[in-house]
Write a structure and sequence with these properties.
- This protein is an alpha/beta fold.
- The protein folds into 2 domains: about 160 residues, Rossmann fold (3-Layer(aba) Sandwich); about 45 residues.
- The protein is globular and about 45 Å long.
- The chain starts with a helix and ends with a strand.
- About 35% of the residues are buried.
């Protein structure tokens, strides 16, 4: 669906993480662990990364992946929602969200919980789909996600068609990166930033506690 570009976007986010020493990282809305395992490959043996997701079926797939591969650091998975994290204050140096921030029902609670659970000077990083600023690119892009992708999904199965139709609607409702940065600032984050990627269809956003 992304022509393999999603790995480029995830790598752009993980490149913001400083790895050399022991780290504790939380991967929010981890799904089947794509970001979790990608980040774990760069972490030291004393580090810990936790993937958090509300979907039991997604986590079952992630746990199967964990048993099928060897990772240098400790990798664990927790079933929970980002709006109510079951962790102590100041636990993680980094928290990541890969292509999923728009799916949270209450972003304000997520940012508040992220600020609570991050250590002093910890970072929250997110890469996600957004609507392009350029009107020509935006028009072509929205036609692609609302018409082309669901049609291709229908050729596979009804489930894929529904999934891609949901993706299109969620992108349409996604917040502009500038608005996300303002929300982060309101929740106590500083040094907020946003970077548009791939003609502006994706944005990397972050802030430091």
């Amino acid at each position: 669906m992304t022509l393999g570009l999603d790995w480029t976007w995830r790598r752009r986010m993980s490149s913001r993480i400083y790895y050399p020493r022991s780290r504790r990282i939380l991967d929010l809305a981890c799904g089947t662990g794509l970001v979790t395992f990608a980040v774990s490959r760069s972490m030291s043996s004393q580090s810990l990364i936790i993937g958090l997701d509300p979907s039991a079926s997604m986590l079952r797939t992630a746990i199967r992946k964990k048993h099928a591969r060897r990772t240098r650091c400790s990798v664990e998975f927790v079933r929970a929602v980002g709006e109510f994290m079951p962790f102590r204050d100041r636990t993680f140096e980094y928290e990541t969200v890969g292509l999923a921030l728009r799916n949270f029902g209450d972003k304000s609670s997520v940012f508040s919980e992220a600020h609570r659970t991050l250590t002093k000077s910890g970072w929250l990083l997110s890469v996600d789909f957004v609507i392009p600023d350029n009107w020509v690119i935006r028009k072509v892009y929205m036609f692609h996600v609302f018409n082309v992708l669901p049609t291709l999904g229908r050729l596979v199965s009804g489930s894929w068609r529904r999934t891609l139709a949901y993706l299109a609607k969620s992108i349409q409702l996604s917040a502009p990166p500038t608005e996300t940065c303002r929300m982060l600032s309101r929740h106590g984050f500083r040094r907020t930033f946003s970077e548009k990627i791939t003609l502006g269809v994706v944005a990397l956003v972050g802030g430091q506690k």
